[in-house]
Structure formats: C-alpha cells, structure tokens
Design goal:
heterodimer; A: 351 residues; alpha/beta; Rossmann fold; 2 domains; six-stranded mixed β-sheet; 17% strand; B: 413 residues; mainly alpha
C-alpha cells in the first residue's frame, strides 16, 4: 500500500514537471519540423530566439520578433527555434541550450535579457548574438535599439489634440529604458502640443522631472492593465497609452466596457489588427518594427557580418512609426507630418 | 468555551497584556509618524466623492490633530487599556491614519476617493473567494496551498468555455475545473495520505504548466477560443443610489455579489449549522468526531470539492469578470495572497474578508499614489501591498492557531 502510494506520487510529479517544462519551451518544435523542405536540402543556418516572460503569443513585442524570425525562415532559408522564458530564471538555461545546439545566431528578445546575453556572448565568442531593445555589449553582439520616443512623441501630440477631457494617461510594465522611452516621448509630445497650441492637457502616469510614473510591475497581469486604466479614467483620462505588452489588453477590455469613453493607443504593433476583436478602442498604435530588425540581424550573420554594431530603428529609416486607426482632421494630419519632418531633421527633440 | 477560558485565565491575560501593550505602542508610533511625516506638507487635499463634489481636507492641520489624538489614545491604552474595545479603537485609528496619509499624498491636488474604494472591493474579490476555498478545506483538516493552481486552472477553463459557449457556461466550466483540481487534492491527501503540502505544490505546478502550455500552443493558434465579453458591473436597484457606498459596494460585477454571499453563507454555516459543527470537529479532533458517528472521510471529500467550486468562481473572475481573456499566469500569485488571508483572518470567513480588503486597499492606494506627487519611487509603491500584508500578518495578528488536525490524514482504525 505504502509503496504503491509513493509510486503513484512519483509518477504524478514527473508528469507535472514534464508538462511544466512543455509549457515553457515547446512552441517551436512543429515549425522546425516543417521547415525541412525538398528544395533546400541544406538549411542556410540555425537561427534561435529566446523570448522574455511575455511569450511568443503576447500580441506585441515577443510575437513580432518571432514574426521577423519566421520571415527569415521563409526567405533566407534558415532553420529556426524558439525557447520561451516563463520566468527570468529561464534566461540562462535557455541560452545555454541554444549554445549547446550550435545555433548560428541567438536572438534575445528584450532588455531584461541584456545581462544574460552579455555573459553568454563573452563566454562563447564564436556564436553570434543579437539583442532586441539594447545596445551592443560585446564584439559578437548586434544591438537592436529603437528610437521609440519619436513615434510616441507623435502619439502624445495626437492624444493632446484629440482629448475631450483635457487629461490623457500612460503607464508602463516595468520602469526600464525601453519602456520609459515611450512614456518620455509621449509626455514630450503632450508638452509640445501645450506649448504650440496654448492648451493645458494634463498627463497622468509619467513624471518627466522624476523619470518615474505608474507601472504594473509586470508584463503579464491583464487585470493590472484594466485597473490602471480604470484608475486613470476615474481621474478623468480619456486616452490611455499602455506600454506593457499584454497588460495593455486589460486596458482595452476596460475601454470596451466604458463604451467609447476611454480610448487606447496600442504599442509595438498595430493593435487594431493584432487585437482585432477590440479594434474599435484603438485610436492609433506606436509601431516598433522589431520584425524588420530581427530579419536584418539574421541576414547580417548569414553574410558574415554583424556583431559589435547597432541597428537603430528611427522614423527616418522606417524602423519605428505610428499607425493612426481613427479619423483625424486633415489639419492634425498636416501638423503630424510637419513634426515627423522636424524630428527627422533634428529641429524637434523627442526625448 | 467560556469554562475553558476561566480555567486558563491568568495565562491568557498575560498574553493579552502583552498584546495590549503592543497596540498602545503602535498607536503612539502612528501618532509620531502623523506628526512628523504627514504633517510636513501644507495644502488642501481633494477627495473626489462624486463627479460634482470634492471633499477637501486640509492635510497639515488634519495630520497634526490626528497625531495628538493617536498619542493620547496610545497613552490611554498603555496606562489603562480599552479592553474589549481595543480592536475597534485600533481599526478606527488605522482608518483615520490612512485618510491622513492620502491627504498628505494628495495635498495640492485631488483624486477619486470613491473610485479607489471601488477598486479595493473589485481587487479583493478573487482573494476573498480563494480564501473561502482555503478555509473550507483547512477547517475540515485538509491543508490547501493549491488555491493558486485552482484559480489559474479555472481562469483558463472559464476563458475557453466562455469564449465558445458564452460567459455563463464559462463560469460552469471554471467551477468544473476548480472541482476537478480539488478532487486531485482530495484523492491524494485523503485516499493516498500523501503529504498535503506536496500535493498542493504539485497542483500549483500542474496548473501553471498545463495552462501555459495550452495557452501557447492552442490559444495562440485559435484566438477565437480566448476572447469573450466579460460580464459588466450591475448597479443594484436602490442600493446603488446611495452616495459613495452605492458605487463602492453595489456597482460591481456578479462576482463581487457572489463573494459577499459566500462570506455570509460560509460564516453562518460554519458556526450555526450541524454541517459546520461537524466540519470544525473533523478539523480539530477527527478521531472524536469519528467515534461519535461522523463520516470523516466523506465529509472531508465533500468540503474539499465545495471549496474547489468556490475557487472555480474565483478563477472565472479574471476572464469573465474582468478582462475577457486568459493569459499565461494571469492570476499572478493572488492564490498565495488568499492563503495569507486565510491565516490573517484566523480561519474565519469574515477575518479573511477583512484581510482581502486590506490587501485590495493597499493595491488601490498604490495605483493612486503613482498619479500624485509624493516622491515615492514606483518600485517601492509596487512593493507596498505585499509589505502591508506582511506587516499586518506579522504585527497585528500575533499568534494565530489553525485547525489542529490540518495536514494529518485520517485513519478510522
């Protein structure tokens, strides 16, 4: 009896951990199997990606990096693999397993992986790395930072121009540079509108002087996103810009519930497309074309280049942008175009 | 109970004196904080109660008066003691202190006080339901640390079933998942007598692994399985017309109303029905209850399964009551907070309710703080709800004792 109990417990626990392991890492195995086609007996290389804790299905940041990898698979003929990180304790083991697999390039998605990427790049000088949202940290690391303050500036200007209540809001996932740069640009855009038009639109959730504001403290709690949006709406905000990946979907759920009182600005991808069932709540999205950057990084490595350099996405090279998904007046459109030109020629500073 | 008290009276009063002293010191410390920290910012603080009315508190005088009152109360407590009124005095003092803190933070500005209280109630709903699930198990002698797993599993089931067949079916699906996970806990800990803490942990890992796996593999490819219209808040007729309270308590989703009911029913049943007496008996002295003819095994099974159903409704709160979809690890540790609420609430549903509200309030205040100019870093604000929970559990609860037989398998022989 006793022995049997222990045995069933052991079997049960092993099954549990097997499933837990699957949950973290199994997303790419079917795509890898599918890539071996007849026209290309020798794959051009093995491109691997480690996500942060958002996962490849976050309808944002990680997902679009993955799409860049899929493009590389389709047109550069590389084999791809992805490991999702469930917690920050997974970064190092995931990187190690890709190093052991002999990946030609390992793409790490996100600033949170910067330390781990640097450590592994220095320990494995023959492997090429690329890191999204961070500058190069070693001779074999391509940095893929984005000047997201530029499109956020445009979004902030647009929000200030279209708010009915005179109050707009923003919040972030965690106060780290690739998140706060959006909020800073947004705040600058609101401030620029106030200065140009003599308005006094108030911004909730980001204080430029203190470089601090409202944060969910994570990138996965949708109810945090809903609550922050509700809280800012209670204070009168009618346009909210969440910079927190899936957390922002909680905010869009609240915007749906508000019945048009609250509008959302999407982040990273055009959320009126990626989150189509709630498309009506998005007045626009700030785009960060991570897919293009990832694709370029893989291409560089195949050409024997890359490493030690940065690819910076800007309004000028189209690496960042704004998708406006609501009707705006032609005058506002003209002003936004003028600001875009001003940012590109440097006469307007977005951060 | 009263005869027992009389016999050990000297012992308890020593304990009580110690506790009374610490309450006195707490009041004095709060008073000093009020005088020197909360009293250092001049300016009026606006508490927006309804859209058309802002209640104004002059932050500095309020804090200074409060400081004097708190120190006087603390001194009275240390010298004489308030006896059975101690907790009432402490609660009122704490509430006033919180208001003074808010006035300090909002001085020179204003914020929506009613909205903050409404968030407090909304945020505490899954914690209340999770805690009731914990209490039902532990009162019958089964340690349930699997609350987190039950909430997460039912959130997933609620999202998928709800997306396919509508929100009401989703709630039923979530309940089924909660009961299913509870059945695992019950069978392993009652039938196979496995260490209940280990089974609980296994269920937590199982739920996290399985739902993350399915979310990544299935829900990503079939987004239609993961989108539904959440239930909107329902304003109860008449009750919701009461100013402030109507918005805070009676303009909520069905989940909140269910949580109020669950607390009331659990309290009444545990202390005023035959079932409650038997449940408490098998949690304290199962052998004695068994000797008197209570079917311990059967009652334990039944209670653990009921707990699973309650946790199931709690899990459905995320997709169906709030955000309309599931995301990996959406519960984000709320089940563990519920576990803390069980202990803080001394295994009593009303106690757990107040614990959940304290945590919900800390979270709601933290949200408001980040909009106000306080100079407190956001990282610290995010930590505050957990810190408050820790301080309250460690400092105010003192020694709390759980059901005696919790964690021990029952053997009829």
């Amino acid at each position: 009896m006793r022995k049997q109990t222990m045995k069933s417990l052991a079997v049960g626990l092993v099954a549990v951990f097997a499933l837990a392991a699957c949950g973290g890492s199994d997303t790419a195995s079917d795509t890898t199997a599918a890539v071996v086609d007849i026209t290309q007996p020798e794959p051009a290389g093995l491109a691997c990606e480690v996500t942060d804790t958002g996962g490849v299905d976050d309808k944002g940041f990680n997902q679009i990096a993955y799409e860049g990898l899929l493009q590389a698979e389709a047109s550069l003929g590389v084999t791809i693999e992805v490991l999702e990180s469930v917690s920050d304790a997974d970064y190092a083991p995931n990187l190690q397993s890709f190093v052991d697999k002999g990946c030609n390039i390992i793409i790490t998605v996100g600033f949170l992986l910067a330390d781990a990427t640097k450590t592994f790049a220095e320990a494995n000088p023959t492997v090429q790395f690329a890191i999204v949202d961070s500058n190069t940290s070693a001779a074999n690391v391509q940095g893929l930072p984005f000047a997201t303050d530029q499109p956020s500036f445009l979004a902030g200007y647009m929000a200030a121009a279209t708010t009915q209540t005179g109050i707009v809001g923003t919040f972030g996932g965690i106060n780290i540079p690739p998140v706060s740069i959006f909020m800073q640009g947004f705040a600058k855009g609101v401030e620029y509108h106030n200065a140009q038009k003599g308005t006094s639109v108030k911004l909730l959730g980001w204080d430029m002087a203190k470089q601090d504001g409202t944060f969910a403290g994570n990138f996965n709690s949708l109810d945090d996103g809903r609550n922050i949006a509700k809280s800012q709406s209670d204070e009168g905000a009618d346009i909210i810009f969440p910079v927190a990946g899936p957390v922002g979907h909680g905010s869009s759920a609240f915007a749906m519930e508000s019945g048009g009182k609250v509008k959302i600005i999407g982040v990273d991808v055009d959320m009126s497309v990626s989150n189509a069932t709630q498309a009506e709540v998005y007045v626009g999205s700030v785009l960060k074309k991570i897919d293009a950057a990832v694709f370029a990084a893989v291409g560089n490595v195949l050409n024997g280049e890359g490493g030690g350099t940065d690819y910076l996405g800007t309004l000028e090279n189209g690496g960042v942008g704004v998708a406006i998904t609501s009707t705006i007046t032609p005058e506002l459109q003209a002003e936004l175009d003028a600001i875009t030109a001003g940012i590109i020629d440097g006469s307007i500073v977005a951060n | 109970m009263s005869t027992v008290d009389a016999v050990v009276a000297p012992l308890i009063s020593a304990e009580q004196r110690k506790q009374a002293r610490s309450v006195g010191f707490t009041l004095v410390v709060l008073g000093i904080v009020a005088a020197f920290v909360l009293g250092n910012r001049p300016g009026d603080a606006g508490f927006k109660l309804v859209d058309s009315y802002i209640f104004v508190i002059p932050a500095q005088p309020f804090a200074r008066i409060l400081a004097l009152v708190l120190i006087a109360l603390g001194a009275a407590q240390l010298l004489k003691g308030f006896g059975k009124w101690t907790n009432v005095v402490l609660s009122i003092a704490a509430a006033t202190f919180v208001i003074s803190f808010l006035a300090w933070a909002a001085s020179g500005g204003s914020f929506s006080f009613t909205g903050m209280l409404q968030d407090t109630v909304t945020r505490s709903v899954p914690i209340i339901l999770g805690a009731i699930a914990g209490i039902l198990c532990e009162r019958s002698g089964i340690i349930n640390i699997a609350i987190e797993g039950q909430l997460l599993g039912s959130a997933f089931a609620g999202a998928v079933v709800g997306s396919l067949f509508g929100p009401w079916a989703g709630i039923l699906g979530a309940i089924a998942m909660g009961v299913g996970l509870s059945a695992i806990l019950a069978v392993f800990s009652i039938r196979y007598r496995v260490d209940q803490v280990i089974v609980g942990f296994a269920i937590n890992f199982f739920a996290l692994g399985l739902t993350s796996f399915l979310a990544a593999r299935v829900l990503t490819e079939h987004p239609d399985y993961n989108i539904l219209s959440p239930l909107r808040p329902i304003a109860l007729p008449l009750l919701s017309d009461i100013p402030v309270i109507g918005v805070v308590l009676f303009t909520q989703t069905l989940f909140a109303y269910f949580a109020y009911l669950a607390v009331a029913i659990a309290t009444w049943s545990l202390y005023h029905t035959k079932w409650g007496l038997r449940t408490r008996a098998i949690g304290e002295y199962p052998k004695a209850a068994g000797t008197l003819g209570v079917d311990v095994i059967k009652l334990r099974y039944r209670n653990v399964l009921i707990a699973g159903a309650v946790a199931g409704v709690g899990g459905a709160w995320w997709p169906i009551g709030m955000v309309g979809r599931f995301d990996q690890n959406i519960t984000n540790g709320r089940g563990f907070i519920a576990l803390a609420a069980v202990i803080f609430g001394r295994w009593h549903p009303v106690g757990a309710l107040s614990a959940a509200l304290v945590f919900g309030l800390a979270e709601a205040i933290q949200l408001k703080m980040s909009n106000l100019d306080t100079g407190i870093p956001s990282e610290f604000l995010l930590m505050a709800p957990y810190l408050v929970t820790l301080v309250v559990v460690a400092g105010f609860v003192g020694r709390s004792r759980g059901p005696k037989a919790a964690g021990q398998p029952y053997d009829a022989q």
